[in-house]
Description:
Layout: E1 3-7, E2 29-32, E3 44-47, H1 55-66, E4 71-74, H2 76-83, E5 88-91, E6 96-104, H3 109-114, E7 117-123, E8 126-130, E9 135-141, E10 146-151, E11 158-161, H4 172-180
Parallel strand pairs: 1-2, 1-3, 3-4, 4-11
Antiparallel strand pairs: 5-8, 6-7, 6-9, 9-10, 10-11
Amino acid sequence: MKTIGFLGKDIDESYVFNKKYLRVFSNINCIGLFPGSDYSKCDGFIIQGGKNIEDWFYDVIEYAIKDNKPILGICLGCQVLGTYRNGFLKKIDNHMDINHLIYINKSSFLYDLYGDNVLVNSKHEEAIDELSSDFDVIATSEDGIIEAIRYKDLNNFIVGIQWHPEELDYMDDIFDKFVSEL
């Protein structure tokens, strides 16, 4: 059985994975990671939503790149990937608790799944301002906010999405794609 390691903190600052993921990963071993975890036990990683970026998240990215392990960054996880090495975030005030369309790059796997655009949920007060040079933008919102990114080396499936697909039944295809990369 494949194992996915989840990175992130719950509201109470405990290291945990969001139980909503169990709906889409019923045949996958899901474990919560914390600083000092043995990453070699994982076939892939999800950097889930949360409040704060921690330095050890970047260690997991380095490990995943070196060992060609897939990463799916969700909300804060997208921001972690987007700031890897040399990216920066900015404060925004119009993306908290709303739904909006994103516009998808035609060369992206997201385009193959959803077409030109798709409605997503939004729960973030920060967004990528300057994207890490290791990534390409694959989707944006109408107001120009970066909504999805992909690692430039397409041999490594490392993708960040700024919304919460675990809360949208019609987004399971993203998780299926991630699992196919394990």
